[in-house]
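Let us practice reading a record.
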Amino acid sequence: MDRQWIAKTGQNLECRGYIAHAGTFYQAEAALSKSTQAHNGGDNTGERAENQESGGVAVKSSLTTSIVFSLLFLPALGVAQSTKPPVPRLPDGKPDLSGVWDHPFVIDMSQDSRGDNCGAALKGCSQKGPGGELPMTPWAAAYTKNFDPANDPDHYDATAQCNPLGYTRSMNSPVPTQIVQTPREVAFLHEAFFVFHVVYMDGRPHPASARQTTWYGHSVGHWEGDTLVVDTVGPFFGSPKMNLDTRGHPMSDRLHLVERFTRTDFDTLSYEVTVDDAKAFTRPFKNSRTWKLMPAREEIMEYACTENNKEVSEGLVNTKPSEKQPPPPEK
């Protein structure tokens, strides 16, 4: 189910290529162009020679030109940089979060991002973890320690069977998510594994008893000022069928998520998620991230993970969890 996507962010910017392979993402970055060096870093030996011959005339001329340029053009540049459109709003006055959003690729939810690369194409994204290793229970700590897909021949990852990533790994993935917002519902359309999730905004509670075990849970939302607050509960399948992140931190059927979405300006979305799971973690923890809006003509792409994955049919990956990947304790 290999998939490669190259997205171009502008005429002379960068592209990002991502390959989804057996449920794990691998990043390949390639620069499309190099900035010119003539403006700031070009050879100025000729100018220095001319300056010596003319007794400083060249310096005065260059300085005068720079001052004139600054007076004439820099104010205009400043105006151009400050003309970002305002945050759009729906008729009900709430911020409109709709759009295709690029977000950081979060492999390990305990870690901070090392740069400002977004997952798919843009710059300006960020991830901030809880400030250290996640506060795991003994079961979760052992599970994470034994999660070793590179060296364990019995390692199991359900995404290799073309099962969905699950709620948190969809939010962590290096491909875009489209948000479609109405007053009664907010839909998240994830390019990764081509799945969707609906947040109900009509005031309904979570169901008293779930009709099925889920990959994405049941979500209800409300507004706190200009911030969308989403509350999500299971029951989830839990580990080993689904994990919290690519690193292999586990989760259980009792995972509870509270997310906060704030459109801080036209092309920036602040995302915060609090993870609470008493079977996997001794206390709740938080991730804070920055998402960036993709250009208006960008669209999410089809993503196909099919049942005839040759890695499964030819025995290249495990089709059931190993003894090193036990489910969480019952209580």
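A brief commentary: Residues 57-81 form the longest helix (25 residues).
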